[in-house]
Amino acid sequence: MIVVGRQLVIRGEIIAADDLMIEGHVDGPVWCDGGAVTVAPAATLAGEIVARDITVFGRVDGTLVASEVVDIRPEGLVTGRVVAARFILTEGGSFNGSAEPQHLEAALRVARHRHEPRDDRTAALRRERTG
Predict the structure, then answer these.
(1) How far is Cα 97 from Cα 85, in angstroms, rounded to an integer?
(2) What does each C-alpha distance from 27 to 9, 35, 43, 48, 85 come to in angstroms?
(3) Burial group, residue 26, by CB count within 10 angstroms (0-12, 13-18, 19+)
(4) How far apart are CA 84 and CA 129, in angstroms?
(5) DSSP states of 35-104 as a string?
(6) Which residues contact 127 (CB under 8 A, 6 or more apart)?
């Protein structure tokens, strides 16, 4: 598991190949497709999270896209959009936004497209144009 410590402030994109625990402050998107992201109680995150599982104990402002589950725990606060197969809001947690499970496949396709290496995108465009 990768840990973004309490003393860290990150401005920019995080791409993790392993499960991720955020204890500090992140301003930017988090990509952990296939893994789990946990936002610790003292943590704050402003941006999109894409992961298999997302668990929020802290504060998130943005879009959460999970191929399996978004779980907002007691004291967790999410403002924004949740796109997930399952959505759990535990008593004491707070959610202000929209839950859109019907858009999961489209949201995952868009997120994965954004993370394709630039050369693969160019090759895909060429293939589409030449048919």
Answers:
(1) 17
(2) 8, 20, 11, 9, 25
(3) buried
(4) 33
(5) EEEEE-TT-EEES-EEEEEEEESSEEEEEEEEEEEEEEPTT-EEEEEEEEEEEEE-TT-EEEEEE-GGGH
(6) none
Tens of pLDDT, residue by residue over 24-77, are: 999 999 988 889 999 999 999 999 999 999 999 999 999 999 999 999 999 999
Whether the Cβ atoms of residue 49 and residue 33 lie closer than 8 Å to each other: no
Sorted by where each begins, the domain ranges of the chain are: 2-130
Smallest Cα–Cα separation from 74: which of 62, 86, 60, 89? 89
Contact at 8 Å (CB) between 81 and 96? Answer: no
- pLDDT at residue 119 above 60? no
Q: Which residues pair with 27 in a beta bridge?
A: 11, 46
